C-alpha cells in the first residue's frame, strides 16, 4: 500500500446524521460503519442511524367562518371553534380521512353579511380549503351562497332560515340545523297545547333570522287559533325597550314572544321592571349570557330552540364530558351542531374517495352519520334539509338552570306540505 494512499485514508471522517420528521419515529436500526484508524488495522464500530421519516400527508383544510369580533363572540365564536376542533382531533387520532389529517382554517365574519362575503371569497380562493362549515347567521349565509356555488365549494350550513335550501344552491349546500319553520311551529304548538295561551304579542330584532322565526310563529298561531295582538321589530342596538313593552302591556296578551339575540335579556329585565304579568316566550334564550343578564328576572322564561341539552342522549353526554375535559368549560347552544358538521364533511369525503370540491359536494346529500343530536342519525333530503329533525323547549327554573319540558319531533313542514305550498310559505 503506497504512503499516498495511507495519507488519504487517514483523512477520512465518519459523520452520523439523524433525520427526524413530523411522522412518528421508526425503531432505529444499527448499521455497521467501517472506519480506517491506521494503515494496517481496520476496526468495526456500530453507529445508530435513524431512518428517514415518512413524509406527512397533506392536511385537508376545512374553512370555519366564526364570529370573533362583535357581541356574539362566545356562543358563535369560541364555543363553535372548540367543538369543531374536538371533532377534528378525534378524527385525526383515528387516522384522518383517506389517510390525510383534517385541519381548520378559522376566519372572522363578524356576523356581518359584507364581511361574510369577503370571507367566502377568501376560502374559495384558497386551493387548500376543500369544504366550509358555517356561517353562524342566516343573514350572513345567504349572500355567501352564490360565492360558494360558483367555486363548487361544499358547505354545511348552520344558518336556520328556510330560504337557504330553496335558493337553487342545493348542489353544494346542506343545512344541518332544523330550520326556523320548525322552531317557530314548535313554540306556537307548545304555547297553545301545553301553556293554554290564547293571545300573544310578537317582537323580533329585525335580523333575517329573528324576523323569519317570528313570522313563522305568528303564522302558526293564527292557524291554531291563538290571537296575535301585535307584531313588530325592535332595533337590536337599543338599550331601552320600555316604550314597546308599555304599549304591549295595554294589549294584555297572555304571552310575549321574542325572536332575537343578546338583546332578549334586556327586554326580559325591563318587562319584569314594568310589572308585565305575561308569559315570556323567547326564541334561543338558553345561553349562559342570557342568565348572566337576567338572573332571577329570567326565571320562568320559556325558550324554543334547536339547541339540545347536554344531557339529551348518551352521545350528547359523552360529547359534553369530552368537551369540558378538553377545554375546561361546558359546551352550549350550537356547539354540538358544529361538532356534527365536521363529521358530515368527513363522511362526504370518504364517500367521494377523493379530496376534490366537486366530488365532495356531490356526496353531501348521501351523508349518513351517527349524530350526537339526532336519535335516528343525520341525513339530508334532496334539497339538503335535515330528515327527522328535533326541536327542544326549555323553562328557566329558580335555580337558574334550564329544564327540558318539551321535545318536538313531528313531521317538518317541508315533508307535510306540497312543494308548491312550502315554496309559497318560505317565499322568494
Question: Which properties best describe this structure?
Answer:
38% helix; 4-stranded parallel β-sheet; Rossmann fold; alpha/beta; disordered N terminus; 5-stranded parallel β-sheet; 428 residues
Question: What features would you describe in this structure?
Answer:
The structure is a single chain. It is built from 14 helices and 14 strands. The protein is globular and about 70 Å long. α8 runs parallel beside α9. The N terminus is likely disordered. It has 3 domains: 47 residues, no CATH class; 200 residues, 3-Layer(aba) Sandwich (Rossmann fold), CATH 3.40.50; 140 residues, Response regulator (Rossmann fold, 3-Layer(aba) Sandwich). It is of the alpha/beta class and 428 residues long. The longest helix has 20 residues. The chain has a 5-stranded parallel sheet, with helices on both faces.
The H-level CATH homologous superfamily of the largest domain, spelled out, is Response regulator
Helix content: 25-40%
Total strands: the figure is: 14
Which stretches are low in confidence, meaning pLDDT under 50 for 5 or more residues running? 1-49
Q: Which value, in Å, is the CA radius of gyration?
A: 29 Å
For the report, how would you describe the main beta sheet? 5 strands, parallel
Q: Give the strand content.
A: 15-25%
Distance between the termini: 95 Å
**What general form does the structure show?**
globular
